[in-house]
Amino acid sequence: MIDCNKGMGLVVKLWRIDRIISDQPITRGPPVTKFSRRFAACLFALSAVAALPAWADEAKQSHLDAILASKVLRIGMTGDYRPFSYLNPATNAFEGIDVDMANALGAALGAKVTFVQTSWSHMLDDLLADKYDVAMGGVSINLDRQKSALFSTPFMVDGKTPVARCADQGKYQTLEAIDRPDVTVVTNPGGTNEKFDRAMLKQAKIMVYPDNKTIWQQIIDGKADLMITDAIETRLWQKEHPALCAIHPDKPFNFSEKAYLLPRDPIWKDFVDQWLHQAIGSNAFAAVLAHWVK
């Protein structure tokens, strides 16, 4: 139970309620009693105390203000998911669709872009630990992430679909055909691929492979039969590795969207949404996409 005496004491110190509630009647008509004035003060105190968290949230500095002041924009990326983000070992630099978009966002803010490498299993925790201002690089929207963070406006519709050796693509057209004890599905750890596999496959063997940059080789070498991943990635693998074929990438197993992962900061999210809206509307995003997915 809330102690009204303590609540009134707090309000008296903050707003000098003694100037508001005086010995004069507080309503027209007969003078009110001392008890009714005390009860009114109690209600006022309780409403003021309840509003304190909102005041604290408003007082907290937005990421947008911090970025404008420091002129530094921190971008979290895994660097293992082409064509969105790839840490090129030859140059030790990030490249891809969302690298170009990150640089464009930095330019809109007048800020220097710094990239912070993360992993799929630690991406959300690193964001919440304030290691970066936004996570980019082919991030899929899901409700588990939404419980702790925010997503930007989606910029791409995608979904999970198989990629397998071309000689075997006829075997894996449906989830029922894949979910058999003699089938091995390879997945990268901690992301939406593994989550999808564990939710949808109850009999197939799920093999977790830690390096998403070379995971496709497990299929070519016969150590795994297939991988279920985003349709855009299956198209890229099919283009780069003739032994692999994307299986119905135009009709994926589920519906998914790509967006940018942000902290719970509505002011920062509003800016990113508006910037992304303009990039899409002006075809700037389409030009970046065409450069990396030809």
What's the SSE blueprint?
Layout: H1 4-15, H2 17-20, H3 34-59, H4 63-70, E1 72-77, E2 80-81, E3 85-88, E4 93-95, H5 97-109, E5 112-117, H6 123-128, E6 134-135, H7 143-146, E7 150-151, E8 156-158, E9 160-165, H8 175-178, E10 184-187, H9 192-200, E11 205-208, H10 216-220, E12 226-230, H11 231-240, E13 244-246, E14 256-258, E15 261-262, H12 266-281, H13 284-292
Parallel strand pairs: 1-5, 1-6, 10-11, 10-12
Antiparallel strand pairs: 2-3, 3-4, 7-15, 8-14, 9-12, 9-13
Quickly describe the structure.
This protein is α/β, with parallel strands linked by helices and 294 residues long. Helix content is 43%, strand content 19%. The chain has a 5-stranded mixed β-sheet, sandwiched between helices. Strands 5-1-6 form a 3-stranded parallel β-sheet. A 3-stranded antiparallel β-sheet has the order 2-3-4.
What does this structure look like?
By secondary structure, the protein is α/β, with parallel strands linked by helices. It has 13 helices and 15 strands. The chain has helices at residues 4-15, 17-20, 34-59, 63-70, 97-109, 123-128, 143-146, 175-178, 192-200, 216-220, 231-240, 266-281, 284-292; strands at residues 72-77, 80-81, 85-88, 93-95, 112-117, 134-135, 150-151, 156-158, 160-165, 184-187, 205-208, 226-230, 244-246, 256-258, 261-262. The strands form five sheets. It has a five-stranded mixed sheet, with helices on both faces. It has a three-stranded parallel sheet with strand order 5-1-6. Strands 2-3-4 form a three-stranded antiparallel sheet. β2 (80-81) and β3 form a beta hairpin. α1 crosses α3 (34-59). The radius of gyration is 27 Å and the shape is elongated. Residues 10-21, 25-32 and 51-59 have low confidence and may be disordered.
